[in-house]
Structures are given as C-alpha cells and as structure tokens.
Design brief:
Elements (H helix, E strand, L loop, with lengths): L8 H22 L9 H11 L3 H34 L1 H16 L2 H8 L8 H24 L2 H9 L4 H39 L5 H10 L3 H34 L5
Helix pairs in contact: 2-10, 3-4, 3-6, 3-8, 4-6, 5-6, 5-8, 6-8, 8-9, 8-10, 9-10
Length: about 260
C-alpha cells in the first residue's frame, strides 16, 4: 500500500495565496464596498477588531465548551455502541436505521425538532452529539472489522490475557479507522454546532454573533467569524490527531505513522 506523500509547506502556501488573490479579485469585481463579498483584507481588518474584545473570547469559550462536550459524548457513545454492535449482530441491525436517519436528516430540520426538547443554550451540545455519533460509530465498526483475525486466533490459542489483546491487537487494529473518523467528526462537530446556534440564537455564542453580523449587513464581520470557525475546526482536528497518536504510542509502545 502506497503512503500518500506529504505536500511541501511552500506548495500549500502558494495554493493559499493563489485562492486569496482570486478572492480579492472577485471582491473587487463585485464592488459595493464588500457588501456582497468582503475581501481578504476587509475580513482580516474585521477580525483584528474582534480579537482584542472580551466579548469575542467569551463567545469562543461559550461555543467551544458546548460543541466539544457534544464531541466527547459522541466519542464515548460511538466507542460503546460500535464495540457492542460488532459483538452482537442483532444490536447492529437495530441501531443501523437510527444512524442512517441521523446521517440523512438535514441539520436545520434536526435543530428545529431539538428546540422542542432542549433550550437554545444547550442546543449545540445535542446537535453536535447526534451528528458526530454516526461517524464515530462507523469508524469503530470499520476498525473492528479490519482487525487481523489470525492474530486474534493466535491470541486465543496461546490464551493471551484480555488486557494484552486489547493493547496489542484490538487497539492497533481499530485505531486508524477510529482516528480518521474522529478527525472528520471534529470538523462536522463545529459546522453542525454553529449551525444550531445560528437557528437557536443562544446569547454569547458564535452562532449568535454570526447571525447578528448578517442581519446588520456587516459582511466583513460575517467572513471574519466564518474564518474563526474554520481555523478553530482545523486546529482542534490537528490537536485531536496529535492526542490520539500520543495515546496510542503510550498504550502500545510504538510510533504510529
């Protein structure tokens, strides 16, 4: 199996600069002082105005705590349900329609339904949890299915203790798929969580700030908040990847690729 070559940093930087130039050109063509499309410079200027304010960091903390709470709960539930579904086929069959329904349901529809059950303040926890759960569940199921059965048979023959089987066979087998699903889920978590906030409008949230910027036609601020969401999602995905690999190195005593 060929490993994907890592793109050099300078190539990535050139690609980013190219699309920033295209963005700047389109903003200039549309004109109207950035009403319809804020330029990169206008976006960065708006972001620079937000960064020193206490309200900005309060909104980041408010949303991050709730979205990450939904993510952590989804990871815990996905691990449990994935392991149980792999062990008992009847449970996997029972859970499958629910997971398919969650995957197919639009975020907006689910948010409106969820508002009937929870307050807007905790809406992002519920929405993040439900939209991440199927991804983690599928990753755990896939990882268990990919685990080397011959190693498991050998461990059974030699009566390897359960703890060692988990550490040296199950964990390395499940980890790649689980890690990939967690990284993908982190991005989904932020998108679905902020979407829920835009509809539920809890005070002091990122989604509320995004909506207020939209209704006041503060397009540069809309782009600035969007950039913040993208950067937070990317940073936390990278942090999750690093943390998961660190856990594997500690438990398995190996450096993962």
């Amino acid at each position: 199996m060929q490993t994907e070559k890592k793109t050099p940093f300078w190539q990535t930087l050139l690609a980013v600069l190219f699309w920033a130039a295209v963005w700047q050109l389109l903003a200039g063509v549309l004109g109207h002082n950035g009403l319809f499309l804020a330029s990169p410079f206008e976006t960065l200027r708006a972001l620079a105005g937000l960064l020193p304010t206490a309200e900005f960091w309060q909104r980041i903390l408010f949303s991050a705590l709730r979205i990450l709470a939904g993510f952590v709960l989804a990871v815990a539930a996905g691990l449990f349900l994935g392991a149980a579904g792999a062990r008992w086929n009847w449970l996997r069959v029972l859970i499958s329609p629910v997971m398919q329904l969650i995957r197919a349901m639009p975020v907006a529809s689910f948010v409106i339904l969820a508002l009937l059950w929870v307050s807007g303040k905790n809406l992002s926890v519920v929405v993040s949890f439900t939209h991440v759960l199927p991804v983690i569940y599928a990753g755990v199921l896939g990882g268990i299915a990919d685990t080397d059965r011959q190693l498991l048979e050998m461990a059974k023959v030699y009566r390897m203790p359960l703890i060692k089987r988990l550490r040296y066979i199950w964990l390395p087998g499940v980890f790649p798929s689980f890690c990939e699903s967690c990284i993908a889920a982190m991005g989904m978590c932020w998108k679905s969580g902020v979407s829920a906030e835009v509809i539920g409008l809890p005070d002091h949230s990122v989604g509320d700030a995004l909506y207020r910027a939209k209704i006041t036609l503060s397009t540069p601020e809309v782009f600035a908040w969007t950039l913040v969401i993208v950067l937070l999602s990317a940073a936390l995905s990278a942090l999750a990847s690093w943390g998961l690999h660190a856990v594997k190195r500690h438990l398995c005593g190996e450096v993962s690729a």
